[in-house]
Amino acid sequence: MDEETPLLTGTPSKPKINNSKLFLAVFAAVLGNFTFGYSLVFSSPVLPKLKSPDADPRLRMDTEQAAWFGSIYSLGAAAGGLGAMLLNDLIGRKLSIMMSAIPSTIGYMLMGGAVDLWMLHLGRFLTGVAGGMTAASIPVYISEISHKTVRGALGSCPQITAVIGALVLYSLSLKVPWHWMAVAGELPVLLMVVLLVFMPYSPRRLLSLGREEQAERALRWLRGEHYDTHAEFRDIQHSIKSQGKVTWSDLAAPLYYRPILISVVMRFLQQMTGITPILVYLESIFSHSKAALEPKYDAAIVGAVRLLSVVVAASLMEKAGRKALLYTSSMLMFLSTLTLTMIYHNPGCPPGPAPPNITAISDFSSHSVVGNPVAGLLPLICTMVFIFGYAMGWGPITWLLMSEVLPLAARGVASGLCVTVSWLTAFMITHVFTHLEDKYGLYVPYLLFMVVCVLCLLFNAVCIPETRGRSLEEIENYFRTGRSFTINRSNSNAQTS
To answer: Are 27 and 195 in contact (CB under 8 A)?
Structure first.
């Protein structure tokens, strides 16, 4: 009857949705992801300066210290994910995002005013804690406040703003000293906190706490005054009532373990593609490759390509669907890593007069660039293709699917678990990357990434459902029944009555 009401009153059959306030709430939240993207790649332009002979002796880094500076961010992010796992259910998604401003601000202050190495490492760790908190909280908050017709596009916003944050850092690094880049990182954090003060809590979060009036007001604020909230409000209520409290024994049910396993494995595979070490050491990778352009310009170009690709993904999310973009993403990453593996392996390159301890990558680089200038662009082109492929699919869709498929009753804890697994994997692969590169050159890391891209392709084919155009309640019903997205209203009403 609720769906027929608009016809009886003479109003249009479809409710009029005004998403302007929803967009404002999403913008306020994803400022945290801007800072996340900015802080993640902070080491890329900074490390070459800190490893150079001209660096301040108190801050100069050797290979091992540089490896820790690059990878300790991921340890902080894992800690932040664990913190969010508790805070998401304790104080809610919105306040968890706001709390991330504390470690972020302190971390930037430490790095901006660093006079010793411990300040740089601690500051990097704290910005990682903030990144882990936002990574676990923002996608869930956005999915819970968004209408299903725009949830796919808005679900890409965290990835888009993270990419913009990285591009802003690359751009600033062309002219701004690295100390001031740390200071500039505090500005979006402060703006995020100010804006979020005026944004609503998640209606699902409010309903789970029994605050029905506040939840209805929040939903109406997000959808506009002329939107009929009754049907959506009823679906949310039914979803919450049908779940209750989750116990350890409940996790054996497909409703819980299947979406949690899918989310965890996706986050593991996402990091094993090598995206974090490539971004963290981007300028260093290009300097080893002796590409045709200066490494700092190569990094800025890759940042721009990354932004273009996530915008393309956002525009295609509701048209092409999640699975199609994941297939495309996996294939592009596979082809680019396959090419890079062959480039850096270079078995046909004639040996030069270099000492035996020079790596194969240096041998390839000097030979190919001198003999053929076009070959000097190949590492840049392949990296651009890899970044384009990642940012089209396995970047934004992994975040989006995590927020879509996780059941509400376990969403706070499960999202924190996913982020923790993701960043522990990122720490491992980022730290190992440095040692593999030193020992074997870039051939072995890229060979590993190529194999992972094949696994991504297979996992998408076998395990990931298509969620395009589905409400969160329909997605939950799919895992509950094992097959169907359609909710049987008569059965559910009979059970609740």
So the answer is: yes
Average pLDDT, the chain: 80
Say how far apart CA 148 and CA 236 lie, in whole Å.
Answer: 12
- Regions in the chain scoring below 50 on pLDDT: 1-13, 347-371, 489-497
Tell me how far apart the alpha carbons of residues 86 and 414 are, in angstroms, rounded to a whole number.
Answer: 10
The pair of structure tokens assigned to 1 is 């009857």
Residues 229, 493: Cα–Cα separation, whole Å: 19
Query: Using an 8 Å Cβ cutoff, are 345 and 423 in contact?
Result: no
- Lookup result for tokens 């080491």: 43
CA 127 to CA 169: how far, in whole Å? 15
- Of 140, 324, 465, the closest CA to residue 474 belongs to 465
**Which tens digit of pLDDT belongs to each residue from 423-468?**
889 999 988 888 888 788 888 999 999 999 999 999 998 888 888 7
pLDDT at 17: 76
DSSP per-residue codes, 202-221: PHHHHHHTT-HHHHHHHHHH
The DSSP string of 290-315 is: T-SS-HHHHHHHHHHHHHHHHHHHHH
User: What is the per-residue pLDDT for 104?
Assistant: 94
The token pair that represents 446 in the structure block? 């890229």
The values of phi and psi at residue 184, to 5°, are: -65, -25
Closest alpha carbon to 305 in 390, 220, 215:
390
Residue type for position 270: Q
Whether the Cβ atoms of residue 298 and residue 286 lie closer than 8 Å to each other? yes
Cα(357)–Cα(239) distance, integer angstroms: 62
Q: Do 228 and 6 meet the contact criterion of CB atoms below 8 Å apart?
A: yes
| Distance from C-alpha of 74 to C-alpha of 44, rounded to nearest angstrom | 14
Q: Name the phi and psi angles at 469, rounded to 5.
A: 75, 10
pLDDT in tens, 297-320: 777 888 888 788 777 777 776 677
The reported pLDDT for the residue numbered 68 is 87
Name the residue with tokens 């593991």: 268
What are the contacts of 249-257 at 24+ separation with CB within 8 A? 251/410, 254/479, 254/480, 254/482, 255/407, 255/476, 255/479, 255/480, 256/407, 256/410, 256/479
Cα atoms found within 13 Å of the Cα of residue 83, Cβ hemisphere only = 22
Calculate the alpha carbon distances from 311 to 44, 92, 141, 155, 391 in Å: 23, 29, 21, 12, 9
On whether the CB atoms of residues 281 and 357 are closer than 8 A, the answer is no
